[in-house]
Design goal:
This protein is α/β, with parallel strands linked by helices and 200 residues long. It is built from 8 helices and 7 strands, in the order αααβαβαββαβααββ. It has a 7-stranded mixed β-sheet with strand order 3-2-1-4-5-7-6, sandwiched between helices. The protein binds S-adenosylmethionine.
Length: 200
């Protein structure tokens, strides 16, 4: 499978949500919320948002920082371009290196192959950090009916820290720390981990 076809299989689904501005799928996390979940890191320099959704983070942070965005959807790229340079994910490897990249509520919609490719290609300056969230069900917990439904739709992918650690070994990045762990019990009964990684 070529690298482009990896993304092509999901592009129509996301483009459709962006055309409809469907807020269940696109979320619209504020910069304040994203930074809180990612452990309130001291961000400076150039920031890269991977999977920009409604571009709310880009809009908020563009008032004080230089922000760039990446998404699978051309409509999202158009929306984000109001606030900073934006690229399709196929172009990730040619995005200029950044100081802080992040990915929030995206990997739970991506196959292992896509997650590996994105982590591998995120362009970091020396010392730069890539912070990403991923989701799983804790051992002993049961998926809610809501989660069973969205999993059955084939647009959710859950992976725990053991699996994420295996994926990381195949990339150009190494873990710096687990920035946060969060558990939710409504509506999806999911837990999140937020990893900070850097160049090997
Ligand atoms: C659930 S939304 C989250 C948006 C935003 N990060 C937030 O927290 O509000 C997922 C976003 O990731 C994008 N996306 C999905 N798969 C992607 C991929 N493989 N590469 C880049 N973006 C992707 C979607 O188009 C959508 O904008």
């Amino acid at each position: 499978m070529s690298s482009n076809s990896l993304f092509d299989s999901k592009r129509d689904f996301w483009e459709n949500q962006h055309q409809k501005k469907d807020t269940y799928w696109l979320t619209g996390s504020s910069a304040q919320n994203v930074l809180r979940y990612h452990g309130n890191p001291p961000i400076s320099g150039i920031i890269l948002d991977i999977g920009i959704g409604m571009a709310r983070f880009m809009k908020d942070i563009s008032k004080t920082h230089t922000i760039m965005g990446v998404d699978i959807s051309p409509e999202a790229v158009k929306r984000g371009s109001q606030y900073g340079d934006c690229f399709l994910v196929d172009q990730l490897s040619s995005v200029p290196p950044v100081d802080w990249a992040f990915c929030h509520l995206v990997f739970q919609h991506c196959s292992d192959e896509i997650v590996q490719k994105i982590i591998d290609e995120v362009p970091l300056k020396p010392g730069g950090i890539f912070s990403f969230q991923f989701a799983y069900i804790n051992p002993g917990e049961t998926p809610t009916d809501f989660l069973k439904t969205v999993l059955a739709q084939g647009q959710h992918y859950l992976r725990d820290e053991t699996r994420m650690n295996e994926i990381l070994t195949k990339t150009s990045k190494r873990i710096v720390k687990v920035a946060n762990r969060v558990s939710f019990h409504h509506p999806e009964n999911l837990s999140w981990s937020i990893y900070q990684v850097t160049n090997r």
